[in-house]
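Lecture notes, part 5. Sequence design as translation. It can be helpful to think of inverse folding as translation between two languages: the language of shapes and the language of residues. The source text, in structure tokens, appears below.
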């Protein structure tokens, strides 16, 4: 198949979609995610469901999609965790472009089409999109600041709008040219999530920085027309999760800085902390003075988020200096069948 768009007379071919899954608790979400890929206006070459060390879920999904053309169910071939699952999907995929969709999200009909348009330029190595929250309570908690929507895996206030160049894409709604992994390797294990354990992240940030170091001419984009809708369960609407996730982000950022240095590792975060967040606090306090619901709570949550993230970063930095890096980068190599194989 071919995706629309040319640059210099060249057509980009084939998008594989990888969805990493780990729990049967998200069964309906997984089915909805796959259905949204199959309903794309630009058909995917294939959808790969990578199951993270859950034999029961692997068997159930294999039976569900046994006769469904274009959907394959695979076991995570690496250590437990999201990064290894993604690397397994990359290894098994056949597309020139590999897109990643969260297992509790659904993509809008033109999601892949908007991704494909970015790759008409051969300098583009990654294209991300916009992720919108679906709150289980049906409305955003009054205290929850939009500047911290990354806490629930969504696009946050402060990101640039339109189709723009960025330092890194966000992993739950992202795509990469296959050659990006040939140049930079796969996702680093030991940074990102591992099932229901502490909600770490930043594996896509580390990969993107590593990629642009290996290929300084590489362009990474966010196109906010490539939209997915991400479910936010009730437990993640609570302040306890907010505090836990921001702390975990600090721990993850410390590992990223250890890998790529603080200049690149914290480049975007400095702008976010010095411009976006103070403006958010100001809006919250203004709303509080005007007796608007949640204003003081939003201002307080921003301050609390900064403090807990900073605490995680400091502790993570100390641990990294004492113990060294606890993650490794996987090389993506050709296998005998013409796909890709992961090798440490």
């Amino acid at each position: 198949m071919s995706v629309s768009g040319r640059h210099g007379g060249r057509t980009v071919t084939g998008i594989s979609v990888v969805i990493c899954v780990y729990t049967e608790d998200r069964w309906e979400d997984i089915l909805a995610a796959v259905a949204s890929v199959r309903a794309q206006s630009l058909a995917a070459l294939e959808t790969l469901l990578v199951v993270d060390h859950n034999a029961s879920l692997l068997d159930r999904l294999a039976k569900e999609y046994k006769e469904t053309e274009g959907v394959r169910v695979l076991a995570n071939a690496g250590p437990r965790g999201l990064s290894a699952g993604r690397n397994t999907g990359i290894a098994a995929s056949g597309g020139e472009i590999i897109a990643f969709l969260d297992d509790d999200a659904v993509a809008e009909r033109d999601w892949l089409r908007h991704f494909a348009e970015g790759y008409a330029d051969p300098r583009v190595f990654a294209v991300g999109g916009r992720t919108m929250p679906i709150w289980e309570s049906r409305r955003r908690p009054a205290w929850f600041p939009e500047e911290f929507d990354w806490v629930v895996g969504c696009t946050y206030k402060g990101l640039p709008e339109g189709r723009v160049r960025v330092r890194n894409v966000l992993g739950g709604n992202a795509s990469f040219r296959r050659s990006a992994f040939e140049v930079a390797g796969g996702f680093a294990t030991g940074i990102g999530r591992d099932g229901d354990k502490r909600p770490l992240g930043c594996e896509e940030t580390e990969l993107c920085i590593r990629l642009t170091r290996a290929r300084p001419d590489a362009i990474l984009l966010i196109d906010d027309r490539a939209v997915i809708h991400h479910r936010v369960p009730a437990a993640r609407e609570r302040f306890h999760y907010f505090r836990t996730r921001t702390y975990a982000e600090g721990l993850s950022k410390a590992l990223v800085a250890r890998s790529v240095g603080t200049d690149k590792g914290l480049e975007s975060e400095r702008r976010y902390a010095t411009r976006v967040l103070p403006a958010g606090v100001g809006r919250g306090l203004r709303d509080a003075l005007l007796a608007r619901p949640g204003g003081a709570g939003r201002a307080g949550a921003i301050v609390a988020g900064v403090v807990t993230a900073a605490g995680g970063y400091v502790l993570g930095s100390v641990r990294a200096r004492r113990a060294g890096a606890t993650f490794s980068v996987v090389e993506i190599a050709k296998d005998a069948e013409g796909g890709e194989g992961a090798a440490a």
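The translated text above is only one of many valid answers, since several sequences can fold into similar shapes. DSSP finds ten helices and 13 strands in the chain.
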